[in-house]
Structure formats: structure tokens, C-alpha cells
Amino acid sequence: MPRPILKMSQSQTQTHTNNLSRTTYSNQQQQVDKIKMDKLLRKSRSKEYMDAIHKLDAGGHAHNQNKLNDIINIIKGEFPEIELSEILLGYVAICYLGKPYEVHTLDIAGGIIEHYKAGQTLPNGLEQARSIAMRGGYDFIEVYVDCCRAISSNGAVSVIYC
Is residue 79 part of a domain? Predict the structure, then answer.
């Protein structure tokens, strides 16, 4: 067994042990917080939330900042316990404005609604949700830093790891 190169005094050993204990506690706390957050994000979405997201395709919100702010406030109100701007990249849904548009996105951090044509690349990690949205079966896709959450018309959530 290798011998330590440096000998630690008893106070250094105690400090080192305390630091390890704090680090272990901090890691455990982060895991608990992640589990709680994941549980909150798996709950069915409310009717108000669903209606707000559906308004994105109605048009006009891209040029009306007050209406867009109302939608973003409803989104944030759905999850008051979570700071969404740190984990939510945005939303992707099929665009019903017609050709040449294929999908639209909402970036809540920047407050930007954008409609994309077929073949036009989606920014900021949202591209991973395009194929899920285009397949159908879901009203929209929430894109997070670690996964996508596909939301059905009844508000049910399906977690998809991309």
C-alpha cells in the first residue's frame, strides 16, 4: 500500500473530513432537488398553460410584446417553484400558418417567437425536438437542457431523452 507523501496534522485531517462531508451533503442535496424538480416537471399541464402555448401559432404575438409577456408569465406561473430560465431552452411545435413554415419556437429567456421553414435549422438546441414535433401525436415539445418533454393535448407529459 502506498504511503502518503505528506503527513497531515490532526486539524488538517479534521478540516479535510469536514470538507468531504459538506461536499457529500451538497451532492446529496442536489440529487434530491433534481428529483423534486423532475417530479414537478412530470405533472400534467393545466388548461390555462395549454391554451397559452396554443396561442403562439395564432400569429400576432411575435409583434406584440405585451401578449408575449402574458404567455411567458403563464408559463412561469405553471412552475413557480422552479427557475425555468436555467433549464428550459424553449418550445417547439408544428406551425399551422401554412407553407413554407414547418415549426415554430418560443425562446422564453429571450422572449422570441420564431417560425421556421422546412430545412431551416432551429437554434440553441431546439433542433432535437423538430422530429418529435413533426411526427405528430403531441401538441408541443418543451426542450430542456437534459431532455425533451412532449406534451399531449390532455396535458400529459412524456419525457424523451435525446
Answer: yes
